[in-house]
Specification:
By secondary structure, this protein is an alpha/beta fold. The protein has ten helices and eleven strands. The protein has one domain (about 10-270). The chain is globular. The relative contact order is 0.12.
Length: about 270
């Protein structure tokens, strides 16, 4: 489909400079327009232009999310583009699934094997936001984050996950972590591995329609988006109806079946997209 829309054009930039942003992502970009800010916008422009938009409607919807001053909307669009770029670097053949009236996942992967992927975001929790508003700190609580991950898998993204299973294909849920303690080197991915795969009881908390769960820590380094190799991980559901072959995303940690694991080569701790 021809790409006839432009993201972050001159008119948008004029609106951005004249708006009141508060805690919006755009404030940091405008503060570094001669350096990292421009590189960040340019990267997203390039990705948007080569993204396999299935329809004009979907292309316009993604443009709206990317250009939104609302952090959640913007990050949702950026994460979708980031994961597509990550899959492209991993030499997976991926296409974007057209939006319909019923929920569908974001991507269909056709090679090296067929499966479906839904991309989502864990934002700062309402509890933490209220604590910050009161001038209070928050405790490191991986259990609370894990509960939110399981809620996404079992409820919030249930229909998108079930779509692939309905076609007798594996389904993968990718979660980008933007919670309070993400990027702090807490090794949350290993905590989640023990909780999800450490005992049969915990494994049963994952829906059988879900073939694998991917936890992602993402960071902007000098204006470029990057994914952590050693703090991102994929967890293969041993109870899944349709299994995903182990090793599908070799640049991040691999966990399966009672905490067996494989770690990526850490020549560089970040996959720069």
């Amino acid at each position: 489909m021809p790409n006839n829309l432009t993201v972050f054009d001159a008119a948008w930039l004029t609106r951005a400079k004249g708006a009141t942003h508060g805690v919006s992502w755009i404030a940091g970009v405008l503060d570094s327009l001669n350096a990292e800010g421009t590189l960040y916008l340019d990267s997203i422009r390039i990705w948007f232009n080569r993204f396999p938009h299935p329809t004009i409607k979907d292309q316009g919807a993604l443009k709206t999310r990317l250009e939104s001053f609302n952090n959640s909307d913007h990050l949702g669009g950026v994460n979708e583009l980031s994961w597509w770029e990550f899959m492209r670097k991993a030499q997976l053949t991926a296409t974007s699934v057209a939006t319909e009236t019923t929920p569908r996942p974001d991507f269909r992967i056709s090679a090296p094997t067929e499966f479906y992927v839904e991309v989502s975001t864990l934002n700062v929790s309402i509890v933490d936001c209220k604590a910050f508003a009161r001038g209070e700190g928050v405790c490191l609580d991986h259990t609370a984050t894990l509960s939110r991950i399981l809620l996404k898998a079992a409820n919030d993204k249930r229909d998108q996950i079930a779509y692939g299973a309905g076609l007798r294909q594996p389904s993968v849920l990718v979660l980008f972590d933007y919670t309070t303690w993400s990027w702090q080197g807490t090794q949350a991915s290993r905590v989640f591995a023990n909780a999800l795969l450490g005992t049969p009881r915990e494994c049963s908390r994952l829906p059988v329609d879900l073939s694998a769960l991917v936890y992602v820590e993402r960071k902007v380094i000098d204006g470029r988006i990057a994914i952590s190799r050693d703090r991102s991980a994929i967890y293969y559901n041993p109870n899944a109806t349709y299994s995903l072959p182990v090793g599908m995303f070799p640049d991040i940690g691999q966990f399966w079946c009672q905490i067996m694991e494989s770690q990526p080569r850490l020549d560089d701790h970040w996959v720069r997209l």
